[in-house]
Amino acid sequence: MVGNTAEAEDLTQEAFLQLFRKIATFRGESAFSTWLHRLAVNVVLMKLRKKSGTETSLDEMTEPDEESGGPRRDFGTPDLRLSGSIDRVNLQRAVEQLPPGYKAVFVLHDVQGYEHNEIAEIMQCSIGNSKSQLHKARMRLRELLHEAMRDKAREDRKAASAESGSED
Questions:
Q1: CATH top-level class of 5-52
Q2: I want to staple 105 with a disulfide (CB 3.0 to 4.6 A). Which of 19, 77, 133, 163 is the partner?
Q3: CATH fold for the domain made of 80-167
């Protein structure tokens, strides 16, 4: 949740300190593991709330960093989070286009983390069939994603040529 191993370790320690302090409040209405999970998540969320409370002015963001002597932040650079979102949307669309058998095995294995022997049991097929379906699903996904990239490149070229043609 925090994306930093050292910070995660600190928060784990804080969660166990909270557990020690609050164990008397456990009522037993749910599983202990559920209660502990909620306590740990709350510790992390409280830390993130405290962290996000700091505000930085736009002037500070555009000034060079005097401590490191680094250049000021560049605006207008590609937003990698946005690119990742677009990739996820394209992947989701490609998965939706897979045949049902391919899609089921792909989702069970690569998304939900099932092993081939578990998938074989769930889908009532052989382990070899599960492996084969997964391989074929991945190959088909590659094809679909490459097609989407080619289509996007064609659209970009058409848009660029239309813009350059209208400027004359």
A1: mainly alpha
A2: 133
A3: Arc Repressor Mutant, subunit A (1.10.10)
31-41 mean pLDDT: 87
Strand partners, 65: 70
Residue 85 in tokens? 């979102």
Q: Which tens digit of pLDDT belongs to each residue from 78-119?
A: 666 666 677 778 888 888 999 999 999 998 998 888 899 999
Tell me: the pLDDT tens digits for 126-135?
999 999 999 9
* Residue 66, burial from CB neighbour count under 10 angstroms (0-12, 13-18, 19+): exposed
Q: How far is Cα of residue 141 from the mean position of the Cα atoms in its chain?
A: 18
